[in-house]
Every structure is written in C-alpha cells, then in structure tokens.
Amino acid sequence: MNKTLSKRTCHLTFDSLEISEALRSAVKKAGYEAPTPIQAGLFPLVMEGFDIIGQAQTGTGKTAAFTLPLIENAADVDASQGPLALVIVPTRELALQVTTEVEKLSYKSRIASLAVYGGTPIRQQMDRLRKNPQIVVGTPGRIIDLIKKRCLRANNLDFVVLDEADRMLDIGFRPDIEWILRQCPEQRQTILLSATVPEEVLQLAKRYMYRPQLVNFSPKNISVDSIDQNYFLVEESTKMPLLNALLEKECPQQAIVFCRTKIRTEKIYRRLLKIMDGVQCIHGDMSQGARNRTMQSFRDRKFRIMVATDVMGRGIDVSGISHIINMDLPELSDDYVHRVGRTGRMGREGVAFSFVTKDEGIRLTEIEKRINLLLDRIPVSDYLPDFVEPTRNPTSNEELEKRVKRKHRRSIAL
Ligand code: AMP
After folding, report:
1. CATH of 227-405, one of 3.40.50.300, 3.40.190.10, 3.40.30.10, 3.40.50.2000
2. Would you give the DSSP letter of residue 171?
3. What is the percent of the chain with per-residue pLDDT over 90, rounded to a whole number?
4. Type and span of the H or E element at 353
5. Which of 184-188, 221-225, 288-292, 336-340 has the lowest mean pLDDT?
6. 41 C-alpha vs ligand 1 centroid, how far in Å?
7. What CA–CA distances, in Å, run from 208 to 19, 202, 203, 390?
8. Contact, 80 vs 132, CB < 8 A?
9. CATH class label, 2-216
10. Distance CA 142, CA 125 (A)
C-alpha cells in the first residue's frame, strides 16, 4: 500500500461505495483500506452514468478511481464485438501502469485488459486483441493504427477514458484524440482526467462530452475564500434547536446539513422532517439507486435541505447551494474544505456555519490553519435569544494570543 496516500484517504469505506463482493476482495488484496477522495467521488458519478471532467494529480489514487467502476461494469461482459472500455493515455509507461492496476483490481472478476502502444511490434497486440479483452489501454497513435487495421473495434465502447488529458494535448495528440473519439459510439460515457483544466481541455470536453460534471479532486485548489464562514460555540444539546432556528431565519435556497455519522444523519433528518417539508438525507447505508435518485432531485431543486454524511462532501457539483451547515465538525480539515466547497460554486455567494463544541477548539484551529482564514464567531443568541454563551477553551494562551493578533491584523487589512 502507498503510505503517503493512505494518510489522505477519507472516512468512507469501500462498503459505502456499494461495490461488488469481487471488487471488495480485490481492493482488500491490493491493501487498499479505504477509498481515496477521488475514488469515493468518482465511483458513484461513473455508476450514475455521468460524463466527467475530473481534476486530479497523479498520486491521488486516480488510476484506481476510474478502473474500479470500469471493472465493475465490465465483469463477465462478452467483448467479442469489441471492448467495453478504451483508456487513452499519453505514454507507454502509463498504459502499462493502468493495465497493471486493472489486473490487480480484477482479481476474482473475469476481466481481460490489454495495453497497446507504439515502439513494439503491432502483430503481437493484434493477436491479443483477438482474445477479446474488455478493457483496452493505449497511446493515441497505436490505437489509431489498430482501429484502421480493424483489429480494434470502437463501435461497441461504453466507456472512453482520457487520462492526463492536458498532457496529451500539450504533446500534440489533439487531432489523434479527436479522430478516435469520432469513431466511438455517441452514447458512450466519457471520463476525462487532467491535472489542470485549461481552455483547450474544456473545448475538447464541449465538443465530445455530454453535459460533463466538472469535479475537482485536488483539495488545495478548492478556493473557499469567497465563502462567508462562521461558527457558533454550542453545547451538544443546543445543536438541534439552533439548527431549526438557523434554517427558519436564514431561509436557504438550498442547504446541506453535514453530520459525522450515518446514524446521526438519519436522526437529524427525522427530527427535521417533523417540523418542515422539503428535507431529504443521503448516506452510505442507502442503496446506490436511492442515492442517485436523491442527488438528482436535489440537483433539480425538488427539495431544499439535504442532511448528509461526507458522502456528499466530495466532488459533487450542485449549483444552487446557498448554505452549508456543519452540524458536526469533520475530523479532517480537508473534509471541511470539501464540505464548504459545495457552496459558492462558480462565483456564486455562499455561507457556511459550523457548530463547534467547547472541546473542539483544537479542531477548529486546525481548520483555520488549513484554510488560512479565521472563522467568524456568531453568538448563538442571535438565533436563540435565551441562550447563554459558553466560552471557547483556548488551545493554549499562546495560541489564543496568536489568534487575537491575526484577527486584529485581518480587521486592519479590511
Ligand atoms: P495513482 O494516483 O493512480 O498513480 O496511485 C498512486 C498509488 O496509490 C498507486 O501505487 C496505487 O496502487 C496506490 N493506491 C491507489 N488507491 C489506493 C487506496 N485506496 N489506498 C492506498 N493506496 C492506494
């Protein structure tokens, strides 16, 4: 297992992604304990059938992120009429790396994959194509040769993946990629991964993808500066009345209420249901189908309040969210960034409220360090007039002093 990467895995489990038994044992065998953010974010979107533009760097687990749903879809599929998935990559090394990952993760699933690339005799690859692999991974030039020789059939593809798209465009593969895409069935699903998303990549997407979901899996690049971020210092027992008062007074266009666990999400959802309409919840105990339907109605603005675990914090692009309420602080600061990044998208304004208990001072400070910004404390009594404010436990006197100075500097700068 990759050690640095495991540190950045999220709290979701592979079980919560609703993967098949075969895939579950394969990830276990590979030593992957939990999905990385991109794996957790991409899997449901691919299974839902979306075209995707995913911004992600190497080292984030992105190869497995797209191979897992490909394997899930391709297992036991008859590929005698041509492969089910074509992965286009810029280099031979990457082609081999992707097929190695497919082999590793298709243990127990009956999947054959093949890497095709230039610089080696084409004949051997032609022979292997006759064995009908479900997944073909290759560099653009060799893919074109094989299609022209009618050894590789593109007309039955369900998936096309463009990995490292920005790099492929940089090294002049644009005409080749466009040619390949034109050979593929129109109703295919296209997944584009790129470390950066420059205009050129967007143009390619506009031409060859259907309503792509743009998702950014590089937490450092998610800007939360434009979001009005606040916190309340509360007792656990005040959280629910505060939530009610907040929703009533703020009257959000659409809001996500984030909770730490599935059980708590259900509980909060049921309590809200008793007092208002237009509430739904989403978490990993729900079936993939139910989650997809809930997400779609939220996107279609059929309801206003979504109570969610971090299942929703990752990558999902819903444009109308005006409010994020962190009923519980997340354990990881990156998860805070992902949650809050659900609002204020595409330059829209957003507001976030976090409920912080007295002993969560350190966690709040960590989040503030991560976003390089101090959250503004709002008195609970602004929403619950009878509430008596507790005081926040400073992490240390020194820390408190630093905070006060930083806050002072910030107010001078403003
Ligand atoms: P990539 O970003 O695809 O180049 O992957 C980087 C490395 O992380 C590879 O060695 C993968 O085998 C490994 N890896 C992928 N997913 C996971 C995971 N969920 N947990 C731990 N390691 C992983």
Report:
1. 3.40.50.300
2. T
3. 56
4. strand 350-357
5. 221-225
6. 15
7. 29, 10, 9, 56
8. yes
9. alpha beta
10. 10
Pick from 4, 36, 97 the residue to mutate for probing ligand 1's pocket: most ligand atoms within 8 Å of its CB. Answer: 36
Secondary structure class of 142 (helix, strand, coil): helix
Residue matched to tokens 């912080």? 356
Gap between the Cα atoms of 214 and 220, Å rounded: 16
Q: Where in the chain is the domain with CATH 3.40.50.300?
A: 2-216, 227-405
Task: Please tell me the distance between residue 77's alpha carbon and the centre of ligand 1 in angstroms.
Answer: 26
Q: For ligand 1, is residue 239 a contact (CB within 6 Å)? A: no
SS3 331: coil
> Quick check: helix, strand or coil at residue 280?
strand
What is the pLDDT averaged over residues 1-7? 36
Instruction: Please answer whether residues 57 and 218 qualify as being in contact, where contact means their C-beta atoms are separated by less than 8 angstroms.
Output: yes
Dump the DSSP string for 177-231. HHHHHHHS-TT-EEEEEESS--HHHHHHHHHH-SS-EEEE--GGG---TTEEEEE
Q: What is the mean pLDDT of the chain?
A: 85
Closest atom of ligand 1 to CA, residue 56? 2
| CA–CA gap between residue 341 and residue 382 (Å, rounded) | 25
Does the beta carbon of 1 sit less than 6 angstroms from any atom of ligand 1?
yes
User: Is the CB of residue 37 below 6 angstroms from any atom belonging to ligand 1?
Assistant: no
At residue 173, φ and ψ (nearest 5 deg) are -85, 0
Q: Six-digit token pair at 369?
A: 């360090």
> Is this model's pTM higher than 0.90 or not?
no
Query: Residue 400 pLDDT > 50, yes or no?
Result: no
> From CA 234, how far away is CA 390, in angstroms rounded?
7
For the cut 70, the answer to whether the pLDDT of residue 183 exceeds it is yes
- Asked if pLDDT for residue 325 goes beyond 90, the answer is yes
d(CA 192, CA 88): 10
